[in-house]
Amino acid sequence: MRVLVAPDKFAGTLTAVQAAEAIATGWRRRVPDAELDLAPMSDGGPGFVDVLHAGLGGDLLGVTVRGPLGDPVPASVLRVGEAAYVETAQACGRHLLGDGDVEAASTYGAGELLLAAVDAGATHIVVGLGGSGTNDGGTGLLAALGATGDAALDAGPAALSGLTTLDLGRARDRVAGVRITAASDVDNPLTGLFGATRTYGPQKGLAEDRLVAVDAALEHLAGLADRRLSLEKGAGAAGGLGYALLLLGADRVPGIGLVADAVGLPGRAARADVVVTGEGAFDFSSRSGKVPYGVAEIAAAALRPCVALAGQVLVGSREMRALGVESAYSLVELVGEERAWGDPAGALADLAERVARTWGR
């Protein structure tokens, strides 16, 4: 029995690497002789660098960068040959914002990560976007690279409405000759009804009565920089970090597809008898570029069944099959919410052991 284990993180409890190991532990209890291939996955958000390091190897370069509110935070750049991989959530993730004000939060540290990759000699930088606690249109990142204006670019969206001039020349020069790829699981534009602010701002703590003003600040930014690029898919990723990268000439790709190709997931799925994926909450939004849907598509192309293990399963059987998943199993239903949060690795192993009764034969 050959099993490909390709989960995402279980947000707030397990990294993707930890989740894959827990699933493997439980599966082996039921089927000791199973051949398990662990391929932890990411869509570009938190865990992006760890997942790629587990799959590709390479060297991790430790750096210290500015967090979203100015405090120093540890981060890392993964070098694999001439390529470098950076995870913007390490510099400006939602978990770093805490109870801080998103209107004052900056992506400056994400720009410092790009600089570290450039200084390390990378000729291709892949930037994982997702899980951000910022909504500054990527102006902090641009400031770290040398962009200037007549208002602060590294003080969050609150300062942008007073901006009347913007010079990106030094920022573009700093990455000249370097190919940049933005890996994102969302395709929202920068502004508007489906833009970064209105879609994701409330999740980051942006008050309802501030949505219009903050969106207008990003619209003002787009008018100074490049309005056409603000409408491109992915410009609204990570609070507008996608837009900043597009201004620097980046190409944008779905995060799950990039990671899957990097670790050779299609070929590994073809060699498996069953594919197991998972995430914290499996719901219909999983179709929006998230890991389980991407893994299920790859499994379907290889004519292999795909099952999902999740903290919670919030879809019925019809929706589940529309997502390409044969069956989905809930951690909370098996062990209860208290143990699912208190002992997530052990609980996930128990769930995997139970699922192996059906799918491990």
UniProtKB/TrEMBL annotation:
PROSITE patterns per UniProt: MDH
Q: Does the keyword Kinase apply?
A: yes
List, in alphabetical order, the Gene Ontology terms for molecular function in this entry.
glycerate kinase activity; L-malate dehydrogenase (NAD+) activity
Q: Which UniProt keywords apply?
A: Kinase, Transferase
Pfam families per the UniProt record, alphabetical: Gly_kinase (PF02595)
Q: Which reaction does it catalyse?
A: (S)-malate + NAD(+) = oxaloacetate + NADH + H(+)
A GO BP annotation: organic acid phosphorylation
Domain of life assignment: Bacteria
Per the record, the similarity remark reads: Belongs to the glycerate kinase type-1 family.
Q: Check the record and name the PANTHER family matching this protein.
A: GLYCERATE KINASE
Q: What is this protein called?
A: Glycerate kinase
